C-alpha cells in the first residue's frame, strides 16, 4: 500500500513537470494539488517541486511564497536557503537577504563570488539604515574581510560614518584602503571628507599621484583642491591633464567652464560645457 502510494506521488510530480515543460501552468498546478491531497505527509518533496517549477517559469512572487513557507518549516534546508537568497537578490529584498547571510556563509550554500556579491549588496543596505554608530559598528564587524574591501560596501559604510558625525574614522579607513587598492569612487568620497583640512588632503592626493600618474579622476581632484585654495594656474593645468586622459570627466570640464566664465571668456566656457553633453 505504502509502495503504491509512493509510486502514485512520483507519477503526479512527473506529470506536473511534464505539464510545466509544455507551458500548461493550470494543469501543472492541478497535478501539484492532487499530490498534496494524495500524500500530505510528503509536503517537503511537493513544495520543493513546486518552487523549482515556479522558478523555471519566472513566477518570482509565487516562488517567493513557496520558498518562504519551506524555509519557515525547514530552516536548515540548504537548497531552499540558496534559492531563497537568489530570489531575494533578484528582487532586491536586502533586509531579508541580510538576515539569511549568516546561514549562507556558515554552510557555503552558494559559490564564493555569489556570496560576496550578496553580502556586499545586503550589508550596504544595512549600513545605510543604521541610525546609531553602535549599530553601524555591529553590522561592520559581522561583514567578512573580503566584503569590507569591496568599494561599494566600504563606500556605503563610510558614507554612513560621515552621516553619523564620525568623519575622522571614515577618513582613516578610506585613506588606508586607497593606499592598498585604488578605486576612483572612493577617491571622490575622500575628497568630500578632506574639505575640512584642504592642505592635508592636497598633500595626500599629491603622494597618490606618484603611484597613479595616469588617473584622470585623481588629477581632477588635485585640480579642484588647487581651485579651492585659489591656485588657479595649477588648478587649470591639472584639470586639463585630467580631461586629456579622460574626455568624459564631466566634473573637470565643469570646473574649467567655471574658471573660463570668471575670466569672462564665455566662448571658451561654452566649449567646455559642450564637452559635458
Give structural notes:
The chain is mainly alpha-helical and 277 residues long. It has 3 domains: 1-74; 89-196, Serine Threonine Protein Phosphatase 5, Tetratricopeptide repeat, CATH 1.25.40; 198-277, Alpha Horseshoe (Serine Threonine Protein Phosphatase 5, Tetratricopeptide repeat), CATH 1.25.40. The protein is built from 17 helices and no strands. The chain has helices at residues 2-22, 25-38, 43-56, 60-73, 78-91, 94-107, 112-129, 133-141, 145-148, 151-163, 167-180, 184-193, 198-211, 216-228, 232-245, 250-262, 266-275. Helix 2 (25-38) packs antiparallel against helix 3, helix 7 runs parallel beside helix 10 and helix 15 (232-245) runs antiparallel to helix 16. The radius of gyration is 28 Å and the shape is elongated. It starts with a helix and ends with a helix. The model has no long low-confidence stretch (mean pLDDT 93).
Amino acid at each position: 500500500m505504502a509502495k503504491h502510494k509512493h509510486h502514485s506521488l512520483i507519477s503526479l510530480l512527473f506529470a506536473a513537470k511534464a505539464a510545466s515543460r509544455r507551458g500548461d501552468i493550470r494543469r501543472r498546478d492541478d497535478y501539484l494539488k492532487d499530490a498534496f491531497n494524495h500524500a500530505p505527509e510528503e509536503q517537503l518533496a511537493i513544495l520543493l517541486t513546486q518552487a523549482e517549477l515556479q522558478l523555471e517559469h519566472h513566477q518570482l512572487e509565487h516562488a517567493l511564497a513557496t520558498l518562504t513557507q519551506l524555509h519557515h518549516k525547514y530552516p536548515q534546508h540548504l537548497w531552499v536557503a540558496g534559492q531563497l537568497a537568489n530570489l531575494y537578490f533578484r528582487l532586491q529584498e536586502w533586509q531579508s537577504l541580510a538576515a539569511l547571510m549568516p546561514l549562507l556563509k556558515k554552510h557555503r550554500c552558494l559559490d564564493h563570488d555569489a556570496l560576496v556579491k550578496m553580502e556586499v549588496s545586503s550589508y550596504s543596505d544595512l549600513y545605510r539604515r543604521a541610525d546609531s554608530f553602535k549599530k553601524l559598528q555591529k553590522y561592520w564587524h559581522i561583514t567578512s574581510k573580503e566584503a569590507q574591501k569591496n568599494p561599494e560596501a566600504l563606500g556605503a559604510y563610510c558614507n554612513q560614518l560621515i552621516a553619523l558625525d564620525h568623519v575622522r574614522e571614515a577618513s582613516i579607513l578610506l585613506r588606508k584602503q586607497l593606499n592598498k587598492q585604488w578605486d576612483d569612487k572612493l577617491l571622490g568620497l575622500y575628497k568630500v571628507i578632506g574639505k575640512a583640512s584642504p592642505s592635508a588632503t592636497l598633500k595626500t592626493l599629491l603622494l597618490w599621484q606618484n603611484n597613479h600618474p595616469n588617473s584622470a579622476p585623481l588629477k581632477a581632484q588635485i585640480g579642484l583642491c588647487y581651485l579651492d585654495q585659489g591656485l588657479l594656474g595649477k588648478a587649470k593645468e591639472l584639470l586639463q591633464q585630467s580631461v586629456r586622459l579622460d574626455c568624459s570627466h564631466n566634473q573637470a570640464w565643469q570646473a574649467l567652464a567655471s574658471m573660463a566664465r570668471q575670466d569672462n571668456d564665455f566662448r571658451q566656457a561654452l566649449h567646455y560645457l559642450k564637452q559635458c553633453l
